[in-house]
Amino acid sequence: MQDIISAVREKLGPSVTIVPIGDVFPGGVTEEAWGGPHLVRYYTWAQTRDRRSQLALLHHLNKNFNVLGAIGMRSGVTDQFAFAGIRTISIDITPFQNRGALGEGTMLDHPRRAGIAA
Question: What is the pLDDT of residue 103?
Fold first, then answer.
């Protein structure tokens, strides 16, 4: 997560506000150390305890603020960004990621690549 934040800051500059969302703050920092807006554990707020109200919040933010986009791991939450009209980059990691160098046991060796339906 910290690498993604650093890359976004480097590319877009200091005028863009990064707003973390999820279970924890990036890099293990605390809310006080983050010091800016965030949506960490927003799903625990009384107003956003169900998926419908969470989607309504994201839609409101997108409609009323200049939301450039969202980056995250594939999940229902990243789907919600897309449903709220927020441009989304969804990172997915293959189950074959840590099986050695290129070749056997990696995506190059994945059955779908070879034309075999999984």
Answer: 53
- Rounded Cα distance between 14 and 8, Å, is 10
Contact of 110 with 94, CB cutoff 8 Å: yes
Task: Identify the weakest region by mean pLDDT among 8-12, 30-34, 45-49, 103-107.
Answer: 103-107
Query: What is residue 26's predicted lDDT score, i.e. its pLDDT?
Result: 87
**CA 72, 88, 15, 61 torsion-angle sign:** negative
Q: Among residues of the chain, what percentage have pLDDT more than 90?
A: 37
71: DSSP letter? E
Tokens at residue 55, please?
A: 């989607």
Distance, CA of 97 to CA of 63 (rounded, Å)? 37
CA 47, CA 31: separation in Å to the nearest integer? 20
Distance CA 73, CA 92 (A): 6
Which phi and psi (to 5°) does residue 41 adopt? 60, 30
